[in-house]
Amino acid sequence: MTDIDHETLHLEAAAFRRLRDHLVQARPDVQNIDLMILAGFCRNCLSDWYREAAEARGITMTRDEAREAVYGMPFAEWKALHQREASAEQLAAFEAARKRE
C-alpha cells in the first residue's frame, strides 16, 4: 500500500467513525425507518456493510457482531433504549420510497 493509499484509508475510517458516532450517539432520536425513507440507508445498513467488508477480508462476522460493532452495544439493547415502533405513516412512506428505487 502506498503512503497515499494508507492516508486515504485512515481518512475514510475516521469519516466512517464520525458518521457512525453521529448516528448512534449524537442522534439516536432519529429512527432507522426515517433514515431509510430519506437517505436510503440506516444504521443497520452500516452494520451490514461493515460485516461485508470484514468478510471480503476473510474475517467471519455474524450480523449481531457487526451490529454491536456499529451500535457499541447489543442491538436489542440499543433498540430498546432508542427506537419506537414504526407508525402506519412511516411504513407507508418506507414502501413508497422502496418503489422509487
Automatic annotation (TrEMBL):
Q: Which Gene3D superfamilies match?
A: SMc04008-like
SMc04008-like domain ranges (all copies):
30-95
Q: Which InterPro entries match?
A: SMc04008-like_domain, SMc04008-like_sf
Q: Provide an example Pfam family for this protein.
A: DUF1244
The protein's name: DUF1244 domain-containing protein
